[in-house]
Amino acid sequence: MLFLVISACGQASEEESETDSASAGEGEVTEQDSVEEEDEADDAIPSDLEANPSEYPQFQAVSEDEIEVIMHTNMGEIHLKLFPEFAPKAVENFIALSEQGFYDGIIFHRVIENFMIQGGDPTGTGSGGESIFGDTFEDEFTTSLAHFHGALSMANRGPNTNSSQFFIVHADETQVNEEYLARIEAQRGFAFPEQTKERYLEVGGTPHLDFGHTVFGHVIGGFEVVNAIAGVEKGANDRPVEDVVIESVEIVQ
Known about the structure:
Elements lengths: L1 E5 L5 E5 L50 E7 L2 E7 L5 H12 L6 E7 L3 E4 L31 E4 L11 E4 L8 H11 L5 H10 L11 E7 L1 H8 L14 E7 L2
Antiparallel strand pairs: 1-2, 3-4, 3-10, 4-9, 5-6, 5-10, 6-8, 7-8, 7-9
């Protein structure tokens, strides 16, 4: 399968990655939950996209309506907050799986520096995973959350195919510029809210993944651990040479 990876200034470079099940061209569905460069999600774009959000909860203190968790890894702790108001099913799924110990011992199986780190597959291959609902579950999109640097989002293999795999956005401000944002708008047929564009230019992220993947959390501490994981030596299929292990996920509140 061909993955497209973001590089500096919004350009794309190609990397080869194989799955255990099948290979497919762009736009085809495989058994591997993945994070592609270009997602076809126009039908899912909210109709009120032009409305500028007054503030982004991703950059606010943890509120009473949010949930804080600590992801303990063999490289350190990552502190995150979850957004049940905006992504109730994704948050319910993540919390329930965490409390069941589902993520304990699972590795980050796909790591691409200046793009994202991906985990949540008990097989460690990128082709496994399951939700608490007995099947995949639907996407939850909102203009109040975006794939800014540090966003926690659901990996998928197409619309409404969320299971247990997730990723944390590692792309920083060097990966986003105005030309890149304009290209995404032209390709996808919408305009980002001005505040969203300003925030992407300030902190970075993966704007091409908006309305293609469900953002349900954000890193609020331990960015140095995310950076360290993103920088490990990789082998075939962007898999770390030495396992990066999720030891447990602790629900703080």
